[in-house]
């Protein structure tokens, strides 16, 4: 069975591609943040190394264009993941950012990505590991111009 590779962080900001990261029959990491995926990889490799270091060490990229890195338009996942967790799992809508922690223009992509999330959650089933996963736990209108403020 083909496993999907999209994780919760990428799905939240629209970086899990519909015909790439989300293509497959089972989504084992769909509810795991990017940082949790890295911790799981480190744990797995500590048992016996099976994940090549180059896969873990290369900068994250949705590969939507040549030489793209996620940090070209997103903050590092060390900054982004706690913000997404507060927003998604704790329902915090107004988040006070510390200096330099703005997620900039990609925040709008979070709402734009709702259509893609609906498609993804109706796709491959996955494991729920958080308090609130996309899908049945997460519903927002996908109508034109909807804003949550």
Order of helices and strands: HHHHHH
* End-to-end C-alpha gap: 41 Å
Helix content: 25-40%
- What amount of the residues lies in strands? under 5%
Shape: globular
Return residue spans where pLDDT drops below 50 for at least 5 consecutive residues.
none
Tell me about the biggest sheet? Answer: none
Tell me how many strands there are. 0
Number of helices: 6
Query: What's the overall average pLDDT, rounded?
Result: 75
- What is the rounded Rg? 15 Å
Question: Pairing-aware structural class of the strands and helices?
Answer: mainly alpha
Describe this structure in words.
The protein is an all-alpha fold. The chain contains six helices and no strands. The chain has helices at 8-12, 34-47, 53-57, 77-89, 107-112, 114-121. The longest helix is centred in the N-terminal third of the chain and has 14 residues, at 34-47. The mean pLDDT is 75.
Report a brief summary of the structure.
With 149 residues, the chain is mainly α. The protein has helices spanning 8-12, 34-47, 53-57, 77-89, 107-112, 114-121. The longest helix has 14 residues, at 34-47.
